[in-house]
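DATA SHEET
Item: assembly model
Revision: 1
Owner: S.N.
Input lines:
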Amino acid sequence: MTRFGVINYMHNKIIVKKVGINMMWKDKYKVGVQLIDEQHEELFKRLSNFIQIVQNDIPWEEKLDNVKETMGFMQQYVVFHFNDEEEYMEEINYPDVKIHKDVHADFKAGIDEYVKLFGEGGFTEEKIQEFSAKLMTWLIMHVGKMDQKVGEYVKKGGQA
Amino acid sequence: MKAEYVNAFYKATQDVFNLMLDLDVEKGELEVIEGMISGKNANVLLGVTGDLKGSILFSFTDDMTLEMVKIMSGMEMKTIDNFVSSALGEVANIIGGNALTNLTTYNYICDIVPPQIIVGEYKSISMANKRALMIPLMTDIGDFNINIFLAEN
């Protein structure tokens, strides 16, 4: 929990309701592969925490450290999860692995673009809001549509 | 304006709303609009290039916009800030992208220009006197519309 910056919030005597609860996750996002589902759930949880901190009514300067910390925490997990998922797709000989990897690469490139912008001094509340909103929609769409196809392949008896 | 364009956008909207927002979308009576269109408060404009050229304008009320973002994020949204407007822009962008995929089945190859989000009260938007087709759409959380200005290149 400390890595979500909750302790810092407590010090500021600001109560962040439901921190740690996965407000974005829906069961329909499950693909039916335990490893992938667990990682997706974790990814949504980290993004959900990030968005809660970004959207909290605390002045920007006061939450900046938390925003940076949760952003890094989430970003790290995106890469970790994509690598695991790609490895899994290769193991099961998933036929569309190349297309899927390309989409992951685009996704990561999209994140890198923002990270670069933030590194160049563009770390503003507006840009972080834009970034978190885009991540949210991309992730819902990706997990809700493209990743479901991996689950369908497995269910149809694709080599596991 | 061909029925294919309308179907491509309507189908894409249904699919994206269903997937991202758990909402069904119903289509009302189409209207032809000349030149100026009245918008609602939260609008997303997408440019289309390629075999078809023009713009698509999505128009939502504030309440519906806030509710859409709440459904996706699981969090209560109070105002249309940059988080909310960016999320709305992306939803429209994804619908646009899916619509272009649908259009390829009718042999139209197009691309979209990143969304422009226009938030705020105004009376109308001028689309250079071009004729537009307005699709009114209904959902459980409110009504919105898509205005299609497209011409074949």
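QC remark: Chain A has a mean pLDDT of 86.
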